[in-house]
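As described in the Methods, two query proteins were run sequentially through the folding procedure within a single session, without resetting any intermediate state between them. The first query and its resulting structure tokens are shown here.
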Amino acid sequence: MKRSFLLPGLLLCTLFVSAQQSLNARLQQIAATIKGKVGVSALLLETGQTAELNAQQHYPMQSVYKFPIALAILQQVDKGKLQLNQPVQIAKAELIPTGHSPIRDNHPDGVTMPLREVLRYNVTESDGTACDVLLRLLGGTKATQKAIEALGIKDIAIATTEMVQVSDELVQYRNWSTPIAMTRLLRIFYTKEVLSPASKALLLKDMTETPVGPQRLKGLLPKGITVAHKTGTSGTVDGLTRATNDAGIITLPDGRHLIITVYVSDAHGTTAEKEGIIAKMAKACYDEWVKG
């Protein structure tokens, strides 16, 4: 009797391993089509199935790090140390001089706005000025780093501000993570009670409503699929793009969740080619796990 129960379980385990190996091979094939370093970590949340490629190597996060910063801010809100409606003054000197910042573009002399709006700019608009203001409210990069490490995450480094990054192309490598660490942080955010239900819903809303990066994780997925994500992008110097990234949570048609991080680093090629790598990685995982 025991043998009859064991055989189906062993067969199912074998099928899972075979499917994982096939998917990992597909990810390698996709990565081989671009000159650059590609890292992927994907998790089918409800089953624990994974797919990985170079998932424990270090990659510059660029604006993907605005997700853990937002998470840390909302933890402070839940503790009562910050309030979403509190006014936040942004001085002219805090506006990043270059790089993406709608706050700077709209308010060149500085502005005061509610913390909720700064948070939205940080996540939905990927605003560099907003990011630095949130880091200030958290007590700096070291305090933010400790907040993330307190969640059990060790391979995410939050070391510099946007202001410092825009002045030196190489500084971005100090803000790094492994793909698997970012996927784990997304899993913890989504499944553990690290935020109140209201704060969790707010962050998911901002990540879902972002207009940034429509051709990345979302690029090849069916219309109507919900994707809560945070992108990251460096500049391109002499044909080299140091970071084209996306990390997020994809809700599958049956209600299950695909958590995925894709980093494309030190890559040559067009923007469409680099974003296409991310889209193909997400689609490969989606196809494998939706059919499964």
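Immediately afterward, the second query was submitted; its sequence and tokens are:
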Amino acid sequence: MDLSEYTFYDNRLAVSPWEVKALYRFVWWGKSRTDEGIARMLQESSMCFSVRYKSELVGFCRLLTDFVYRASLWDIIIHPDHQGQGLGTALMNYVLEHPAVKDIPLIITYVSDLYPFLEKWGFKQLPGAVLLLRSPIEYS
């Protein structure tokens, strides 16, 4: 894949809440998110990673982390028009090889529908997770 027309960012300021909301319409778990919630989510996330094609936001994910021992990866999205071309792989490589992330020994994610895609980086489905679900959620 020729990535020359894509630009990768590691800064939450590179995306706006309304751009992220536009990407969320393509995933089942993001449709109920509000403008206010997305704005706060971006502000409070440890890191936000994004991909632009020319000026359009076409990829996004975010990380919550202590930058030493643990991190959780959330909201991995590639716009449908840009899927199947290796852009998701390029975004994951960008995230996992990032200087602030590459030495974190445990990274978790809860996007089981992406498990076959994530296996190539060593992600594993393991039993024993303990979660507090305060209300029914759509993995949001």
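The chain has a mean pLDDT of 90. We note this only descriptively and draw no conclusion about the first query from it.
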